[in-house]
TrEMBL record, chains A, B:
Pfam families: Usp. This is UspA domain-containing protein. It comes from the Eukaryota. The gene is LOC110734310. Residues 9-163 form the UspA domain.
Length: 169, 169
């Protein structure tokens, strides 16, 4: 699965609501894609956002032991729809700002971030995975810690871990 | 420390005696450096090999409780000198095979692989660190497990983890 052995390159950038993931996207555009700009027709940038699975799949009961009402589920779905739109539109802006004419595909998955990211990379036969070091998302980050190192262990293609200057200790 | 904001790029590739580290070097040459070939005068590839610290620093006693004799220390030093030569010459061949005209610097450090790699990257103000996923070296690998994930956590610049197809499970 060498990039140089194929006509077409697929680069997956896992984006979330963090500034770091936008920094990783920007780094990728400026350091991996811009330098092969002349071949950019053969490169597809896949922006991947992973939503958590629907709450009903987590647990049908809230902390008080009651089933989630349909209105709560609908509110959450609405919240994630808006979040996805906002992240993808921010990512699109980063791409436009780079002034690199590149094919961009948007994908939205749902489930465990590591499983969805690694599964998508494998399914696409991607040549590279790029993500921030502290993703995935503020909730996941708080609950599960960093997803990027788990992905680095599992994913088969080369993976770039990019840190936001803010996250450099 | 953005690559695009500086005239000169420094890319550190941590090499060891594993095939995987040569694969990582080759990947870097073909996917990061080759595409910016026209600017390769401003890019320096730093090949970094880390030897373990001298055995006297580990422990002055061998398993039987005797001090290492000077001959044993000399033999080990000789062994590592040959190993470094062999790894660096293999790395040089990989560079030559890529037919990319790039400035190559060789550095040999001694000590804990993670500390030396991260320290060198910081000292050089490197723009990127590239290494295999299973390094560092067959001894360290067996004793300490993977160094690359520790480096990914510590290093400030973007880091690429490249897997050898053999190590893909």
């Amino acid at each position: 699965m060498e990039v140089e052995n194929r006509g077409e390159k697929k680069i997956v950038v896992a984006v979330d609501e963090s500034e770091e993931s936008m920094h990783a996207l920007s780094w990728c555009l400026n350091n991996v894609i811009s330098v092969s700009h002349q071949n950019s027709n053969s490169t597809t940038l896949v922006l991947l956002y992973v939503k958590p699975p629907p709450p009903a799949n987590y647990s049908a009961f809230d902390v008080a032991g009651y089933l989630f009402g349909n209105d709560v589920v609908a509110d959450l779905e609405d919240y994630y729809r808006k979040l996805v739109d906002s992240v993808m539109s921010k990512a699109q802006q980063v791409c436009m700002k780079s002034k690199i004419n590149i094919k961009v595909e948007k994908k939205v998955g749902s489930g465990d971030a590591k499983d969805v990211i690694c599964g998508t990379v494998e399914k696409l036969g991607a040549d590279m995975l790029v993500m921030g070091s502290h993703g995935y998302g503020f909730l996941k980050r708080a609950i599960l810690g960093s997803v990027s190192y788990d992905c680095a262990k599992q994913v088969k293609c080369p993976m770039v871990v990019v840190k936001h200057p803010k996250n450099i200790s």
